[in-house]
Amino acid sequence: MNTKKLRIVLFAFSISFLGCDNYLSELPDNRTTIDSPEKIAALITGAYPNGNYMFMASLMSDNAREKFFSGGNQLDQQVYNWEDSNLEDLDSPVFYWNSCYEAIAQANQALASIAAFETQFSLDNQKGEALLARAYAHFMLVNFWGKAYNPETANTDLGIPYVLTPETTLIKNYKRNSVQEVYDFIDQDLIEGLALVGNDYDEPKFHFTKNAGHAFATRFYLYKGDWDKVIEHANKVIANPLLEIRDDLSYRQLTFDEVIRTYPSATERTNLLLVSTFTLWSRTYAGSRFGINQDIQNELFTTGNPHQKGWAYRVFGTDLFFNIPKFEEFFKITNQSAGTGLPFVGIVLFDKDEVLLNRAEAYAMKQDYENAIDDLSNFLQLKTTNFNQATDVLTINNLARDYPPILGEFSPYYSLNALQTVFAKSISAFRRREYFHEGLRWFDIKRFHLAVNRTYNGSPVTLKKEDVRKQLQIPRSAQNFGLVPNPR
Prior knowledge:
mainly alpha; Serine Threonine Protein Phosphatase 5, Tetratricopeptide repeat; 19 helices
């Protein structure tokens, strides 16, 4: 993929799509005027990041190990070794940073247009979606480039710029808001957006709906440590988990190709929000030098089931190509004669399985172990082979046997007793399996302050619990416009 050509295509796409005010203060003759609900709704379709974070989040986490001692491109090696990278390739941190701020610019232009026409049209649903999309992009940025939320230090911890208005100048300098300020802005956008957003879309699972917004809220408040709000929002999404979460047992009857089509499908009952991203992840997640090796296969997918039975997850391939199929690429030709184009992959941003696990964790943090066990029992029933409802009864002792508390291993900003640690450790492990290749493990590593130990070129490498490299470095291009870099 020619990066320069890709950037030109993306630039042209972003300008021609609906014409934000990022680059010009006056409308050229051929720019679209945003003057109807339909055009505003179309503008919001670009308010979701088209970059893919799963590659970088997966390779930085303990889900990636060295499978062989040579190969891997420069980006692979930089990300795996937690090195600062200024490459602008697909799947790079810089590409994802840019895609998030491009999405934010779209959301802000939509909100400005809504403000201009809200007396003429009913635009509550569009405003709600734009607010949620803006909150989501900032949330992902602060959790990659800022520290994990800690109320005792969030006022001084460096976050990211929270952009609230469209750009009307060619060059504008920004400052980094604190993590607390970013979280406060997200909270405001989330509350207002949820109050306004609806479900009336032709393809609702490609937009923030009420359910998708509440699912986002469970993740946001979980990372913030507001257990009551996690439970409140989760209860608005899930009524009967066994009929709503992903039935991984049924996936065992599908072929590899059927799984990659089903997992991110709009017809899959658990999926709440889907987006299309520019990415090579569908080509590299199985064959990369760094990924799931035999040790991870044994640790995660052979052992660790509290019912002492097999996991429903099927790992395909041999030891150098182990993978759980989740991604199907669509290639869009942009130059027919040259045969070049852009690879697209649909990914799941939110689903009901995550909501259920978030609620179980919140119950455990409130020491409501009965409800936590109930949620985990429902979750495991569809993830365990040969499950027997009469005899496979989940208990705290079962969890503690497989996920014993180790002093200092899990150390979020809030204190954990032994039982809470058992639940935090087991739920994090369940989340790690369910979202393997999808990157959510990285955020657990950050908020629980977990260390990562592995090898590179056969020698040990470690990311310490409080390692500053857990905060990605601000892109050099952004530093050039005044953003303070992260400590190194």
